[in-house]
Structures are given as structure tokens and as C-alpha cells.
Amino acid sequence: MPRNITATLEARDLEAIDRILYEAPKEELVARSLFNVKTDVHPGAETYGYNMLTRSGAAKIIANGADDLPLVDVDMTREFVRIYTIAAGFRFSIQELRQAQMTGQTVDATKAETARRAIAEKENSLAFSGDSKFNIVGLANATGIQVANAEANGASNSTNWKSKTPAQIEEEIRVTRAKITVLPGYGGATLALALPPEQFELLDKRYSDFDSRTLKEVIRAHGWFADIVRVPDLAKSGTGGTASMLIMDTSRTTAELLIPMDITRLEQEWKYPNWTVPNEERCGGMIIRAPFAIARLDGI
To answer: Which CATH superfamily is domain 146-254+292-298 in?
Structure first.
């Protein structure tokens, strides 16, 4: 007797899809690999409240006997982030299902991979750049982070790293890093360096004619960073849409990624001639508690 092909999504098909949805490569989710992921907020929540610290004041040299002591302070304000749904779906036609069942195979899970990647890319973009349409801020544009412009000491007075020597780039990284390490309590902070793709690749340039190491190897030898990562969102995150670099403390006291509900496959929907499989995630972006422990350098 001929096999009865129902052309529905079967349990084994859904298991194959789920395996793809949940097993995201670590390097794709850079924010997740750098920061703690906060998951103890109910997915039904619309907002999450937290305390944000703002540092004010600076030290200065004073004369002997002077009484104009400079004062520093840390102000605590209550902030709220909204929690949004990130969604993406994919379809299988009834004929695709018939073909898979005819050959005894599961459906091709490539579409699930594409949906997972779309959600992951949006999540990562929210973490670093936020979304102005929904008033979401990210690590690169949060209020209170330290911002500076790259030195115009490259060829033709350029700020662009392509016009600078590895030694000049190394010095800019050192100076920017010091904006965090000089802060009280941050001398031994676990820091990460995040760069746009083009500038990340420049780190593979030979350091000098007298040192065959790459710039990246020289920087790693200093022990300045626990991670050096590539972040495409930083290509236009600086003032005026310029490329920027981020150096940040990655402890949970500085920032966390809020994911009340990780990517979840919802009930598949039938409408001739396709089965649609919706997927969603509940995401609040970055909870940035100590923005002064994040430094951005523009114009690189």
C-alpha cells in the first residue's frame, strides 16, 4: 500500500528545528560572551527598573595650605528599560514536507538557522547600538559613558587608523583604556576591547620593521584585555556616524544583558499552502549600571 503522507510538521522535524534554534555559535552573540545574561525577570514584564551610577568631579593639584579641596561624588538614579519582543518566522510549503516525508528525512532546518541568526543579530545590535525608534540605548550611546575623539596624528592629519602606525594605534588604545583603569576600584577590572570589522583586521598588521609580531599580539602581551572582539555595529556608532572603539568593564556591576525569555518556538500555523513557524525572544537590551566604566573613541 502507498504510504499516507500527511504533509504536517512531525515531532522529529520540530526537534531538528529546535536544535538549530537553541545552539547558536558563541562568536555570533558577542554581547552574551562578554556580559552576564540576566534571565530572572518574568517574560510578561514590560519594564525593568535598576539603579544607575553617575560619577562627578575630578582631582586637581592644590597649593600647600589651600582649602579648595575638589570633591567627587557618585549619584544614584533610578532607571527603567522597556522589554520588547524580537520575532522572526519561517515557512515550509506542503510540497517541501511531502518530499521530506517521502524520503524519510526531517525537513531542512536551514530556514530555522536563518531565523535564529536574524533574532541574534537584532539582539546583539540592541546591546551595542540600541534602537532610536524605540528609545533603547546600547553600550555605545548610553548617557554617562566616557567619549573622546581619536588624535589627528595620522598621515595628512587623519584620525583614521588606516593612516596611523601600529605604535600610534597602540597608544590610543592605552590612553582610552586608562580612562577606566584610573577610576577608583577599576585598576584590575576585567576589560574588553570592541572594534568595527575594518579596525579589528588592522590589528593583524605587523607591528614594525623591527618587531615581527602583529599589533594584536603586542596588545595581548600587555595583558590589557580579557577579550578583543569584532562588532559590526561600531562601524558607524561614533559622532557623525564615524567608526568608534569601545573599551568596557564587563562585570555585572557595570552592565548586564537582559533576556527574560530566550528564543522560543511557538505553535506552528497552517495556511494553505504553507506551515509558518513563529519564533520570539523577550529582550530588554543592556542594563547599564555604571556607564563611566565604558569608554568610546570616535573617528578611528
So the answer is: hypothetical protein PF0899 domain (3.30.2320.10)
CA atoms lying within 13 Å on the CB side of residue 291: 26
Secondary structure letter of residue 291 according to DSSP: G
Supply 34's cell numbers: 562578554
Q: Spell out the domain ranges in the chain.
A: 11-61+83-139+259-285, 146-254+292-298
DSSP H stretches of helix in 84-229: 94-102, 110-129, 166-181, 197-202, 215-222
Do the two domains 11-61+83-139+259-285 and 146-254+292-298 of this chain adopt the same fold? no
Please give the CATH topology (third level) of the domain spanning 11-61+83-139+259-285. Answer: Major capsid protein gp5 fold (3.30.2400)
Report the distance separating Cα 74 and Cα 187, nearest Å: 18
pLDDT tens digit at each of 300 positions of the chain: 444 446 788 888 998 899 888 876 666 779 999 999 999 999 999 999 988 776 666 666 777 777 777 776 667 788 899 999 999 999 999 999 999 889 888 888 889 999 999 999 999 999 999 999 998 999 999 999 999 999 999 999 999 999 999 999 999 999 999 999 999 899 999 999 999 999 999 999 999 999 999 999 999 999 999 999 999 999 999 999 999 999 999 999 999 999 999 999 999 999 999 999 999 999 999 999 999 999 999 999
pTM of the model: 0.85
